[in-house]
C-alpha cells in the first residue's frame, strides 16, 4: 500500500451519492421511504454510512441524488447533515429529480442522475469525483482509493469486494489481470472469473467509482447522446471504459476501516428482509463484526434529543430486563424481557411481553403479554396485547410478511387487518 500524501486528494474531491432507489426487496419497509432512508443500527439510517465515510475520509463536498419517495430521506439529511459551511469550502447538496434537463425527464438511470447535475459539479471545480451507492453498510477510507486512482493513471477506479468465486454469481464481476487492470466486466456470470492471485475468489463491484471530473463529464455527455444507452453506470458507462479505456479494480480490503475488534472487511447489502434483520441482530453479539462504537470513525447521523433508556419493575415474572441486546434512548422496558434484540429510539415494551431476535424501529408500542420472536417491526407500529409471532409458521405467513427462514416483517396495516 502506498504511503498517504501530505496533501490529501480528498480535499479536491466531491462525493456524489446515488440515493434514489426504492429497494423493492425490502417489501413494505420501503413503501413509505427509499432504501437509503431505512433505519439501521439503533439510531442511524443506511445512507449515513456512505455519508460518514466521505466525511471521515476528508471529503467536504457532497451531493446526494434522490428520487423515489424521498421525503423522509431529505428530512433526515436536512436535520442531521446541515453542518457544512460554504465559507470553509464545504457543501452538501440534495439533488432531487427535478426535470432540470427536460420537463418530462426524471432520472433515467444512475449515470443520468449525475449527468443532469453536471452544471452543479462544474461550478465546484473539483478534480475528482467519487460516485457512491447510498444503500450499503460498511466503513471505508476513500482517500486510499483516490490515491490508487491517481498513481495508476486509470480512467476509472472501481471498488471491489473479494468474494468466494461461486458466491459472485449475483454481482457484476471484474475480470482482472495481474496488475488489477480490468479486462472484462461480466454482469451476474454463471461461472465468475477468478482473481489471478486468488483463483477461488472473484472481484465483485461495490458500485463505488472514482473518476477525474473532466473524464467523467465527457463520458456522461457521450453516453447521454447514445439513444441505445440505458443511462446506467454498471450497464453502460463502465463496460464502455473497460472496452475502450483504462479501468482498474480497487480491493476493499486495502481501504476498509477496522477497529481493533474488527478482523475481516465488513460490507453488507441489507437489501432483503433477511439480510436487514441479520445485519441488525449481528450488532447484539459480544464482539460484532461491525464496530459502531469506534470513535475514530464515527457514523454521523441525526442525533435526537432524547432521555435515557429505562428498565422498570422487578417482580419474578415482570422484570424489565435485556440480555445481548442494543437499546436506544427514550426506550422504556416496563416489566418486559428482551433477548438478542435491537430497539430504536422511543420503543415502549409493556409488562410480561417477551422479545427475542426482534429488530424494533422507532416509536413502536408493544402491548402486554406479547410474545415476539425473529421479527422486524416497522416505525410506529402498535402491537396488540397478547399477540404471538414466531411460534406458528402458517399463521404468521397469513398475517405478516414471512421469509423462508421465518423472519416476520410487521407493519401497522398488517396489524389493522388482524381479527383478534
From TrEMBL:
EC primary class: transferase
Entry EC number(s): 2.7.7.27
Residue span(s) of domain Glucose-1-phosphate adenylyltransferase/Bifunctional protein GlmU-like C-terminal hexapeptide: 307-410
CDD domains according to UniProt: ADP_Glucose_PP, LbH_G1P_AT_C
Transferase among keywords: yes
Assigned keywords, A-Z: ATP-binding, Carbohydrate metabolism, Glycogen biosynthesis, Glycogen metabolism, Nucleotide-binding, Nucleotidyltransferase, Transferase
Biological or metabolic pathway of the protein: Glycan biosynthesis; glycogen biosynthesis
A Gene Ontology molecular function term of the record: glucose-1-phosphate adenylyltransferase activity
Residues spanning the signal sequence: none
Superkingdom assignment: Bacteria
Sequence positions that bind alpha-D-glucose 1-phosphate: 107, 172, 187-188, 205
Catalytic activity as recorded in UniProt: alpha-D-glucose 1-phosphate + ATP + H(+) = ADP-alpha-D-glucose + diphosphate
Boundaries of every Nucleotidyl transferase domain copy: 16-284
Site for Could play a key role in the communication between the regulatory and the substrate sites, residues: 67, 106
SUPFAM superfamilies named in the record: Nucleotide-diphospho-sugar transferases, Trimeric LpxA-like enzymes
A biological process from GO: glycogen biosynthetic process
Summary of the function given for this chain in its UniProt record: Involved in the biosynthesis of ADP-glucose, a building block required for the elongation reactions to produce glycogen. Catalyzes the reaction between ATP and alpha-D-glucose 1-phosphate (G1P) to produce pyrophosphate and ADP-Glc.
NCBIfam families documented for this protein: glgC, PRK00725.1, PRK00844.1
Membership in a protein family: Belongs to the bacterial/plant glucose-1-phosphate adenylyltransferase family.
Oligomeric and partner information: Homotetramer.
Protein name: Glucose-1-phosphate adenylyltransferase
Higher taxonomy: Bacteria, Pseudomonadati, Pseudomonadota, Alphaproteobacteria, Hyphomicrobiales
